[in-house]
Amino acid sequence: MSDYWNKRVKNITPYVPGEQPRDRQFVKLNTNENPYPPSPKVIEAIQKAAAETLRLYPNPSSVDFREAAAARYGVEPGQVFPGNGSDEVLAFAFAAFFDSDAPVLFPDITYSFYPVYADLWDIPFTAIPLNKDFSVDPGSYLECAGGGILSNPNAPTGMALPLKDIRRIAEAAERFKKVFVVDEAYIAFADKTETALPLIREFPNLLLIRTLSKEASLAGLRVGFALGSGSLIEGLCRIRDSFNSYTMDRLAQAGAAAALADASYYDEINRRIIATRGRVSAALDAMGFTVLPSQANFVFASPPAGCGKSGRDFFLALRERGFLVRRFDKKRIEDYLRITIGTDDDMDAFLEACRVIGCRE
Fold this sequence. Notes:
By secondary structure, the chain is an alpha/beta fold.
């Protein structure tokens, strides 16, 4: 610990990202990246943007991207806020809408950046325990005097709330004149629940946050965005412009706009991921794993009770065989593994490794 750090830096516990190895080749199933390449139209747009104009600052309002998002989602450009990945947008949302007067609500098992942001901005929070089956109890979020945030589908469980429950929480937050944030990083992979997009017309306090990292195969480009009322978007802009008015570079703006315009390409590859997820879930279930019902591009599963191996044992055995998955050293989920859905070939090899590990004496 440095003597030069201030109290904020000393007291914070930073987010720890998934392992990104450089020493050997792995099948990476630990960071929820899309296994399929970006649309060729995205690559073409980025190549075109990589011109002499890179000497100039990008458009600070990301006009082309906002117009593309507005056309894709049926909103006005003024209802779109672009950012350098959804993590940045989430950080801005915590700074803009939550305060120290009452705790913000989110689940105890969810995206682990939420408590980091709360601590960073000195915002109190209440982590509400998930139900025994790892589902979110919407009734626990109806007294959200400080606002609330839910990842839907939730991470790392992959489970989702139906739209009617999102509506109930938005209504409750509106009574307190507080913002309710729905983090829809994985909504493109949901086949049994709906986006809350239609509700932003009804609730001026509802903010949706999306990312192109997963659904558009652009984790390396770093593009996220928010959708909401003009008032919420203006609040995010005020925070952004107090840090850096140029959070999206020229290449990101061009590539992201092209991705939003090529919905048919991404709908097709993401349907493949949904199909593979169903097959992998069924195969793990048949091996005796406990598998939660996922609506994301990953599954959350614990090893068979009869195999005599903890989640950590299984995690290490998979790593030995060249497969990286994510494990969280946290009570209630320490024996669960979060497994990103890769290509069919990757997942066939992964399932075979699970069979071998599970059958070993």
